[in-house]
Amino acid sequence: MLVLGLTIQAWLTILVILAQMILMAKTKIAPEFIALGGLTVLLLSGAVTAQEAVSGFGSESVIVTGAQDIVIMGLMQSGALTWVVQTLLRRPSRLSRGIIRLFFPVAALSSVMEDLTVATAFAPVVRKWARKIKMAPSKLLIVAAYASLMGGTLTLIGTPPNIIISSLYAERAGEHMGIFSVTIPALLCMAAGLGAILLFRKRLPERKSPEEHFSSTMDYTVELLVPTENDAVGKTVEEAKLDNVPGGRLIEIVRFDSEVISPVPKDEFILGGDHLVYSGEVDEVMKLKRTRGLVNATHHVFSVKEMDIERRLRTATVVYNGSLAGKRIGDTDFEQRSNSVLVAVSRSGERIPKSPREIVLEPGDTLLLECPPNSSSNDSATEGDVQFFDSNDTITVGKKSVVSGLILLVMVALVAFKVLSLLEATIFAATATMAFRCCSIERARHSLEWDILIMIACTVVFGKAIEANGITTLLSSAAQTVSGGHPFTLLVILVLVVAFFTEFLSNTVTAAIFFPIVYDCATAIGCNPVPYTIATMLAVSTSYMTPFGSPVNMVIYGAGGYKYSDFVKVGLPVKIITIAAILVIIPLMYSLK
Question: Does the structure show a pLDDT above 80 at 410?
């Protein structure tokens, strides 16, 4: 049965994709869960077969991305990345030179490493470097994010969207693209993007860094608990000297029966199990905690001796679409899993007038956590919840740094000279990374970005559903009508559509959904699909205007203390100039017919 030229399954496929767009843009549900839900609906409705539904999980793009994760972890753990940072980042005399000095190493690394991993690795480095050269980290972190996105387009392995598009292209065209097929046009577009950043560098935001937030007087609330055996029990607040701290005060007491006393009178008696909520400087409140025998408010204890005095404070940001977003810390098992305690919360540098444990967390919130002395930034217990700004990991540069670097170069060379396919080369490199102990098997297991792998697998299936149900054929006909069959007009339409949707969807999702449409539109009017494919790779990575358009942006969102408007202010001119460059460069370099 056809409805307006499409089957019921085709209309259901369109509705599922539209629903995913809305859910990803308007809710805090993890994208991989939304994608799995959409895949389930398509499977149960018969829009895709069982074989098609599972094919995405064994697709080349999923395996290549997973193998890359292991190779990249080897580079990080062996110290190769540390060496690059120490060698290339120095002391620029002004902002423009700082932008250039940072941009090129980030872009270069992103061309052969997953752009998200590069951004994650550079975020803490850039923050420390910015303080060292006396610049606001917010001015440089967003540059690192854009450099990572632009650099990821330089090769087929630099970013998941390129891997997906090249894999889908090979299925349709019957031939593989070279690893450097996109390099020259991507370099020219990257030059235009860098020029836009330098031209509009005065728009780069100057925000407080998270550590500056936490040192601000009266910006934060800290919740402490009175143990049953504490000397203050039975005394008034004034007698126990718990009413004030330098630069702050006791703003409320929460009793074990949830009774809230606020404001707190000086003659209020202290009971065992009371939660004391202070407003003031974090350092001073923590000093009060140590001198008065108080503990963190995770659970009731009887003595301060039960707590670990060797614990340390660390800063982290709530991951977008992570398990903590939209929840209170007390309603989750995060503290138990990570053996950490929430001390304070920052949101755009402003104090939230609530106990930290009662705050509904939002993506980008900065958390001050009390952690074990040996906690690691790569701890699987916190993966998908928070991104640490600092690192307690000790990484040294040595022989394994050289080995891991050589493995990466050999992998690229094997693909470039067509000795091995991309799939074979990445599997070889991942195996070599573990064999030479640049990365342990346990660390390799934790290095796999399962959320990204699930997203890629599901979106590959969505692309097949769009093609199998005749949607691409219908859209191709519509595109031919709108463009009048003119190749350049079609290119403009497709690039603008892809560039628009990539701001509101994951760039990975945008790549998988729109590439089949782009390919079929091009071939329907007798055009060469290669320039349209390359244009799609470039356009899908122009996620500059929203913090959630790409995981790369979310990595630096909390670390830089940004507001949503910062991305629009900086990203809009960069995006306009980059899209203009795509539309000029592609027709000049390739014949569209």
Answer: yes
- Whether 253 and 275 have beta carbons less than 8 Å apart is answered as yes
pLDDT greater at residue 317 or residue 568? 568
Tens digits of per-residue pLDDT, 496-524?
A: 999 998 887 778 888 888 898 898 888 88
Burial class of 435 by CB neighbour count within 10 A (0 to 12, 13 to 18, 19+): exposed
Q: Give the number of other CB atoms < 10 A from CB of residue 101.
A: 17
Q: In what order do the strands lie in the sheet with 341-346?
A: 341-346, 366-371, 312-318, 386-388
> pLDDT tens digit string along 9-32?
888 888 888 888 778 767 767 777
CATH number given to 312-388? 3.30.70.1450
Peptide bond into 137 cis (omega under 30): no
- Tokens standing for residue 72: 């990249």
Q: 588 vs 389, which has greater pLDDT?
A: 588
Tokens describing residue 289: 């905690």
- Identify the architecture of domain 228-302 in CATH: 2-Layer Sandwich (3.30)
State which H helix or E strand residue 370 sits in: strand 366-371
Residues 450-482 as b/e (b if ≥16 CB within 10 A, e otherwise) read: ebbbbbbbbbbbbbbbbbbbbbbbbbbeebbee
Residues 402 and 78: their CA atoms lie apart, in Å, by 8
Q: What is the H or E stretch that residue 251 is in?
A: strand 248-254
Give the residue extent of every domain in the chain: 228-302, 312-388
